[in-house]
């Protein structure tokens, strides 16, 4: 170990200001000294408008638990964009995501991803995970809400002879049902898995407004720990059903919700500006640079040229969006460093200052 | 019932403890971040969702939209609101002679035209630009490794020549096309923490942050304004006719010739702003802080080229001395090249200097005018432009310091056409002519008078 660390020191001395990771990244792009990365190893397109991407990860990644999600950074038109995706591979395996084209980032992933591409990663997160003690399970999923549950099924069913899982999955048509063949094969192979597919194009919406559907498909549903993932309306129904007719208690029904990003700003709107580190809130007009807002509030904000050319005033945006006072463009994603001297609040804004 | 929530709390702690120590400059209102933003803040923490499961409830503290509570807020439009103290229309106390024929309206119109040039590039900037800078960084790293690798066997003459040449090119590319431009924030729009003005450290003695202060802010804001832009003569040379001649200026050519091969050390010293310390504008504490950071950086730079590389070469092939000569030569050639290119930026015949009266009440258009007539370009091949880090497009760079450097070439004809239409000089010439012109000025101003 001592020899290894000496070699590392020597390499650092020879390479400064490059890092050993910068050199390794020439050979394998999974290396970086500043961010977690993944390299795409397999791309399949299970149906038009969606893609399943497998990737290997670089140093620093922590293997995910079944059901967890990770934030994934994708370069769209050269600009890094971050989104969260469920990891559908079994726990501990190299991650895999399945993405449906519903927006700018997912659309780019569906259309352009190829083997060898680099993805940028944050560590897996989320507590929509399997129970610690073995219990009979009921999975209720709709559309791409199946992706975290798929990880649970792949983790549990082949490995645990005592698994007892019922999956009720709602999809529009048999052709658009994710993982359908794999699920049917698993159900054939392992007695611990029962799969009910529900196709809305054939039989209408999966009705969870009363207990009839569940009583028919899974009579012992009240004795199972339930997991639900899908669109809002679907989950609201499930939540209501459990509240009125189902079991209660910890782990009776766990849900993971979809949520679209709706934090768009409005040019010139102004709004409440929260300086998080300083614990200060100020009402700011939509045409005053955030730098001046901070200074008027008595905060020691970094500054430089005050005309947008020197990038000395960069501060991370936590939430909300800003107006670029030079162009009128409204922009901003959480985590982005913004030039406070030429940016004004475009609605409520939080800054890491 | 449990709903899953993103555990944003843990990460919030990580970034809220992120220290952004700031130092308030005495007798000026500049505040500089002593530390760069923690890269933890790079990944967004409040998650945007698309196709994946997400937080069931957003943070409880979402502030209410209250646009109507600020009655003076007006819609931001490019035409009405320009940041900083620069007005869209008006006139400075004195307009520079070369632009004296322009009316306030013409200068305002010129600003709109140049804004449009910038906006046009922004609208097309994208994946191909990102691919370009990544390609350049890759090329530079391969050259650097191959060059240093060759020098490990520097007793072999071919290896020495190849190694020294590759290392020289690697250092020039790193400083000019990558370092200078990344540190300007030209690539910040990619939001890639590996290629960002807040994280990049360059292969040059002066630390990135120290240089960003004197260069990005002071030099680029006050371009060629005597008494404000300290880059005019770098405190050691008389580079403007209006500067009072003193006997020490007779050494102008000697100092300049001596500066060229050790340019990076000169810049490191310059960035300490000793003259501002002497004038009481910069505190001793700030100087000590800067000295510490430049000391650490200089030690690492020195150790790499003049200790680690020769020692490794000595141990592996017994060619330590030849390797040391190689790194000295590579650094020296890089310094001479950088010095030459930078002196071509504002000192050749035609590039004007300005008085403080000319920036008093300066409008945005006048600022643009000053950048154009205070800078000088170099004509030449694509390769020459690349090796200068596109600083050969000094005029365009000064107009738009944070546009990606690979776009200056396409902007140049438009700027030149605008200059011609408004009757403004556009200074340019081949490399040797511009270098010669800058040197002629160094000699001429060594003597009293103009």
Automatic annotation (TrEMBL), chain A:
Residues 271-353 form the 2Fe-2S ferredoxin-type domain. Transmembrane segments: none annotated. GO terms for molecular function: 2 iron, 2 sulfur cluster binding; metal ion binding; oxidoreductase activity. Residues 33-131 form the FAD-binding FR-type domain. This is Ferredoxin-NADP reductase. InterPro entries: 2Fe-2S_ferredoxin-like_sf, 2Fe-2S_ferredoxin-type, Beta-grasp_dom_sf, FAD-bd_FR_type, FNR_nucleotide-bd, MRET, OxRdtase_FAD/NAD-bd, Riboflavin_synthase-like_b-brl. PROSITE patterns: 2FE2S_FER_2, FAD_FR. Keywords: 2Fe-2S, FAD, Flavoprotein, Iron, Iron-sulfur, Metal-binding, Oxidoreductase. It comes from the Bacteria. Its cofactor is FAD. It comes from Micrococcus terreus. Pfam families: Fer2, NAD_binding_1.
Automatic annotation (TrEMBL), chain B:
GO terms for cellular component: membrane. GO terms for molecular function: oxidoreductase activity, acting on paired donors, with oxidation of a pair of donors resulting in the reduction of molecular oxygen to two molecules of water. CDD domains: Delta6-FADS-like (cd03506). Transmembrane segments: none annotated. InterPro entries: FA_desaturase_dom, Fatty_acid_desaturase. It comes from the Bacteria. Residues 53-79 have a biased composition (Low complexity). GO terms for biological process: lipid biosynthetic process. Residues 160-428 form the Fatty acid desaturase domain. Residues 17-33 have a biased composition (Basic and acidic residues). Residues 1-80 are annotated as: Disordered. This is Linoleoyl-CoA desaturase.
């Amino acid at each position: 170990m001592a020899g290894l660390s000496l070699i590392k020191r020597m390499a650092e001395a020879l390479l400064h200001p490059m890092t050993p990771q910068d050199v390794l990244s020439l050979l394998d792009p999974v290396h970086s000294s500043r961010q977690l990365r993944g390299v795409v190893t397999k791309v399949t397109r299970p149906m038009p408008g969606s893609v399943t991407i497998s990737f290997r990860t670089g140093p620093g990644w922590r293997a995910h638990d079944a059901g967890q999600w990770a934030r994934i950074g994708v370069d769209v038109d050269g600009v890094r964009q971050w989104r969260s995706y469920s990891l559908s591979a079994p726990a501990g395996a190299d991650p895999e995501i399945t993405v449906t084209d519903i927006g700018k980032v997912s659309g780019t992933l569906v259309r352009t991803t190829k083997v060898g591409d680099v993805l940028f990663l944050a560590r897996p997160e989320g507590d929509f995970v399997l129970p610690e003690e073995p219990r009979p399970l009921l999975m209720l999923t709709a559309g791409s809400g199946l992706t975290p549950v798929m990880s649970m099924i792949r983790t549990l069913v082949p490995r645990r002879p005592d698994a007892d899982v019922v999956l009720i999955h709602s999809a529009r048509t048999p052709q658009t049902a994710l993982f359908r063949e794999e699920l049917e094969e698993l159900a054939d192979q392992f007695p611990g898995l029962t799969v009910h597919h529900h196709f809305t194009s054939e039989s209408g919406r999966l009705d969870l407004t009363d207990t009839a559907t569940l009583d028919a498909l899974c009579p012992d549903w009240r004795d199972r720990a339930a997991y639900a993932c899908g669109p809002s309306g679907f989950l609201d129904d499930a939540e209501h059903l459990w509240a009125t007719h189902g079991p209660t208690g910890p782990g009776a029904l766990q849900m993971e919700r979809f949520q679209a990003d709706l934090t768009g700003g409005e040019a010139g709107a102004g709004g409440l500006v929260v300086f998080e580190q300083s614990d200060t809130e100020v009402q700011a007009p939509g045409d005053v640079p955030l730098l001046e807002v901070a200074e008027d509030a008595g905060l020691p904000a970094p500054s430089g040229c005050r005309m947008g050319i020197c990038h000395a005033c960069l501060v991370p945006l936590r939430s909300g969006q800003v107006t670029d006072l030079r162009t009128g463009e409204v922009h901003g994603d959480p985590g982005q460093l913004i030039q406070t001297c030429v940016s004004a609040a475009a609605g409520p804004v939080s800054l890491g200052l | 019932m449990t709903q899953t929530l993103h555990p944003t709390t843990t990460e919030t702690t990580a970034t809220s403890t992120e220290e952004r120590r700031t130092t308030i400059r005495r007798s000026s209102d500049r505040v500089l971040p002593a530390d760069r933003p923690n890269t933890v803040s790079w990944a967004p923490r409040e998650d945007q969702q698309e196709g994946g499961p997400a937080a069931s409830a957003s943070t409880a503290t979402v502030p209410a939209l209250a646009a109507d509570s600020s009655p003076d807020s007006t819609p931001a439009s490019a035409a009405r609101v320009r940041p900083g103290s620069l007005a869209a229309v008006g006139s400075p106390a004195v307009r520079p002679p070369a632009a004296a024929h322009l009316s306030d309206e013409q200068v305002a119109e010129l600003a709109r035209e140049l804004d449009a040039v910038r906006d046009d590039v922004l609208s097309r900037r994208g994946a191909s630009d990102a691919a370009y800078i990544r390609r350049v960084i890759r090329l530079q790293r391969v050259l650097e490794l191959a060059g240093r690798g060759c020098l490990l066997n520097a007793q072999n003459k071919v290896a020495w020549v190849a190694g020294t040449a590759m290392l020289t090119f690697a250092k020039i590319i790193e400083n000019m096309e990558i370092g200078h431009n990344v540190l300007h924030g030209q690539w910040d729009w990619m939001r890639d923490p590996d290629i960002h003005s807040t994280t990049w450290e360059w292969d040059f003695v002066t630390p990135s942050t120290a240089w960003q202060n004197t260069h990005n802010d002071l030099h680029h804001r006050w371009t060629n304004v005597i008494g404000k832009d300290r880059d005019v003569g770098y405190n050691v040379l008389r580079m403007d006719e209006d500067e009072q001649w003193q006997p020490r200026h007779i050494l102008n050519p000697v100092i300049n010739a001596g500066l060229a091969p050790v340019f990076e050390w000169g810049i490191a010293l310059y960035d300490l702003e000793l003259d501002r310390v002497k004038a009481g504008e910069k505190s001793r504490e700030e100087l000590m802080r800067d000295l510490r950071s430049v000391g650490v950086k200089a030690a690492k730079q020195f150790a790499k080229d003049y200790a680690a590389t020769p020692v490794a070469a000595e141990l592996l092939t017994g060619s330590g001395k030849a390797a040391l000569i190689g790194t000295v030569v590579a650094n020296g050639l890089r310094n001479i090249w950088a010095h030459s290119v930078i002196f071509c930026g504002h000192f050749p015949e035609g590039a004007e200097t300005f008085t403080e009266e000319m920036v008093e009440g300066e409008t945005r258009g006048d600022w643009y005018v000053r950048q154009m007539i205070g800078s000088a370009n170099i004509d030449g091949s694509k390769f020459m432009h690349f090796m200068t880090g596109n600083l050969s497009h000094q005029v365009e760079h000064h107009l738009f310091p944070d546009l990606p450097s690979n776009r200056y070439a396409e902007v140049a004809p438009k700027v030149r056409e605008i200059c011609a239409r408004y009757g403004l000089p556009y200074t340019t010439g081949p490399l040797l002519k511009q270098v010669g012109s800058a040197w002629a000025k160094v000699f001429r101003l060594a003597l009293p008078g103009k």
